[in-house]
Amino acid sequence: MNPSKRQGALFGLAAALLFGISPPFAKLLLPESGPMVTAGLLYLGACLGLLLFEMTGRPFHLGVEEAPVRRADAGLLAGVILTGGMLGPFLMLWGLERLSGVLTSLLLNLEAPFTVLVAVLVFREHLVRLELAGVLVIVVGAGILTYRPDAIHWDVLGILAVAGACLCWAIDNNLSQRLSLRDPLVVTRMKTLGAGLGMLGLAALTSQQWPSFTILLATLLLGLVSYGVSLVLDMRALRLLGAAREAGFFATAPFIGAVVAVPVLGERWDIQDATATALMMAGVALLLRGRHAHTHRHEEVEHDHSHQHEEHHDHVHDGSPVLQEPRNVACLWFPFMPHKQVVIIGGGFGGLAAAQLLRDADVLLIDRTNHHLFQPLLYQVATAALSPGDIAWPLRTIFRRHPHVRVVMDEVLSIDRAARLVRLRVGAPIAFDVLIVAPGSRHSYFGHDGWEQFAPGLKTLADAVYLREKMLLAFEEAERRRIATGTRDRLTFAIVGGGPTGVELAGALAEIGRKAMGPDFPNLRLDDLAILLVEGGPRILPGFSPDLSTKAATALERMGVTIKLHSPVSEIRADGVMIGGEFVRSTNIIWAAGNEASPILTSLAVPQDGSGRINVQRDLTIPNDPWIFVIGDAAHCADAGGNPLPGLAPVAVQQGRYVAMLIREEAAPDQRRPFVYADRGMLATIGRAQAVAQIGLLRLSGLAAWLLWCVVHIFLLIEFRSRVRVMSEWMWYYLTFKPGARIIYTLQRQSGREKKPSPSGSAGSDTKEWVGPE
């Protein structure tokens, strides 16, 4: 088996495994929430999984152009949502309440024969003998499996409910056939979202029992994994194996569920189960073989009668016109790799995205630090919620299996375009044929560089650790003064800047000061703490819609944060800050108000904007040099409306991937399509179970937005180990209000402008508004 087929087999088995485990684990959740609420949460979780997949740029894209969903498809979509997304899951879970997990999982094999019968009886499709034999064998196996009137878990209504669910999914499959030329991810996303919200709406109208927060989160996670992630893996298997082999792997899902039910639910198999399972496996094999033969018979007369079934899990059957001749990505892989040197400056979001796509080329990645930093969670290190190692990963570890990618830890001083050299502080100059400049940004104090020593910002791990220690020491000193002298000094934190960084810092500090730190500092009262969020404009979170800005402000004020709008800062000193003409005494000032580009960009000697960013061409190159690309915070790039793109991590990631594709295809300058940013939306968290989300026309706030924020950020962490650590830290903090990283190291830190910005500062300056990259 060649490597791609082996990889496809692994993806196919993983998809079947994740989908197969859903009935046993759903049975554990049913007692508290009931079938209607559980079905809604499972499909809503599946929708979140699909959104995450799309936000990361559809890395398993099938290489073809699908037609968009049209208004004329509304009837078919409604039928798909009603049968496959609402009625089918509800009936299955209703039956699962009354039956064993083994029995329910095996009965799901009835979906295949029902699909064939509906196709033949309703849609007049042709039935071959092998398919008929498969249908009969599966039905006989189901009869043997279910006829046990003396068994504890035997319930006629439960059996009929699961069979009815399979019939609903069979109708769904045949309706979905009529949508086979539409984008399958769009169709499935609409289905899961419509079904999830529809079922939860019905549950609210009928006063169904709602689960605890823990069960709710667990059900969403099960839907995300068993439906959303499983779908992504199944499509990847389809891409690598073809439809016939992929269907064979996915057909094992009910049998996997029956096996998993034994350890998860403590159930047992008997000789009747084993006999029925053997017959059903034989029947499924006959169906798959008959379907394969049916497809080839049509191919001989050059008539494509086979189709894609979106199904309740969106798997694709043989010969789908959308997937008939998938593009072979391997054949595009960088024609000039052996003799071209690609140099990337910066291991932030943009640089890392480009390096990962070019990892089989001759790539040299230069970074001032030895790690990639996940900046969206940097504020949690500063507020003692996470440890530095939870959000940073060594670059050498990331690329250790890719020997063509070399990492150099050094600081870039300048770029010599004429000599094609990158000059370093320590090492010898590095020659390049292709250059990707992704140096990130540094804080801008708008001409008042002396403010930095009194109002540090948050860009690097060193910044975060310094701010964390400064915050902890402030509490320690206030407690010590109270014990020693009896005086009560007000502990004031002033955060300058009302963007996502400032909002998230203010919310985190409010929670720590008022809930987590209080029990540890018994001599401090709640009214000893003041948190100011200073914004020069008319509202906080100016990149979000006004209603979400208002909701965020209301939530912060409820937490005790004082918001000062229309309040420009005119002076910062060691003992305080001048805010709108009023002096506020504070030694804990945090800067979150502005950024400027890296100074190394001036060596390119091309036009820059007022923030020092390079005015790039439409293909992200600099003028008159088609093989020097500038991305992320270093690039001034306009959207279709002529507005400059914001300095966000998703922008940098999409630009990195776009540039990598141009390089590996060696696209000529006049043949390059312009870069177009796909806006995936913005997220900002405010505090415990409080966040705001803006995704297209969708506006979310409160718990729903916070859950989405948690899922997105866990998903985007690089390592599985980091995901587990961060999730466990969040759960511990959520349950106990006790941050886990409150150790003071008393580390030394450079201050002032002598502390040079990292040339790798994550490409994406204010990376809090993260929904996902292209």
Features:
774 residues, alpha/beta, FAD/NAD(P)-binding domain, 6-stranded mixed β-sheet, 4-stranded parallel β-sheet
Walk me through the topology.
Layout: H1 3-20, H2 22-55, H3 74-98, H4 101-107, H5 111-121, H6 129-146, H7 156-177, H8 184-205, H9 213-241, H10 243-250, H11 253-265, H12 271-300, E1 342-345, H13 349-357, E2 363-367, E3 371-373, H14 378-382, E4 392-394, H15 395-398, E5 405-409, E6 412-416, E7 421-424, E8 430-431, E9 434-437, E10 441-443, H16 461-485, E11 491-496, H17 500-516, E12 529-534, H18 546-558, E13 561-564, E14 569-573, E15 576-579, E16 582-585, E17 588-591, E18 595-597, E19 614-615, E20 621-622, E21 625-630, E22 635-636, H19 649-665, E23 682-687, E24 690-695, E25 698-701, H20 703-716, H21 720-736
Parallel strand pairs: 1-2, 1-9, 2-5, 9-21, 11-12, 11-17, 12-13, 19-22
Antiparallel strand pairs: 3-4, 6-7, 7-8, 10-18, 14-15, 15-16, 20-21, 23-24, 24-25
